[in-house]
Specification:
By secondary structure, the chain is an alpha/beta fold. The chain has ten helices and six strands, in the order H-H-H-E-E-H-H-E-H-H-H-E-E-E-H-H. It is 42% helix and 21% strand. Strands 1, 2, 3, 4, 5 and 6 form a six-stranded mixed beta sheet that branches.
Length: 234
Amino acid sequence: MLNIWNSINGKSINRAAHTAVIAAVAFLFFACATTQAGKPAPVTYMEDHPRSILVMPPVNLTPDIKAPVSFLATSTVPLAEAGYYVIPVALSDATFKQNGVTVAEEAHAIPHGRLREIFGADAAMYITITRFGTRFALLSSVVEAEASARLVDLRNGQEFWSGKASSSSGDSVTVVNSVESLIAAMLTATISQIANTISDASHIVGKDANYKLLSAGGKNSVPYGPRHPKYENN
């Protein structure tokens, strides 16, 4: 390369030719590094291929304090089935708490590089719970759960994927023909709410929502990981 820049057969390259060569090289470099819109070309999922995932403490936007535990506990299976190694959630949760990070929002504010340094994961799954628990209306009682998630590369902060899922289960009365029927409907809804609370139906519905959210193979679902047979089809 030194000979190309400095001499050809012992003669100095003309300054104008030198400048033209540099301009051509720069043009080719930036043409390869940008898209047609002039923005940096995104790195594809297959090029970065995260192999391990750290599930962050879920942010809970609901009044039910059991929601984060439910979602965190049921996150490993769908991600493992999708083809990833998941950092044990009990270990990661204990690590956060032992270091004084007891609020999910604080954990989400930790720099990506620092998380990778501590846990050694390639990517982190950030979950936000927007609905969880039994919702009581006049004539119905419905157990519901809803959450969104983002998969972020801890090496460079790039977002690989984002999605949202929900699940619900409940009983409702749609036709009321008399006062007696109205009272019966309200009583049924109240009993249903109590039964759902006692049986912890929220956890069951939350598990279903989390499985939909973090499983691969569906529309806008989590991409298959390197340990899944369908990984090459991403």
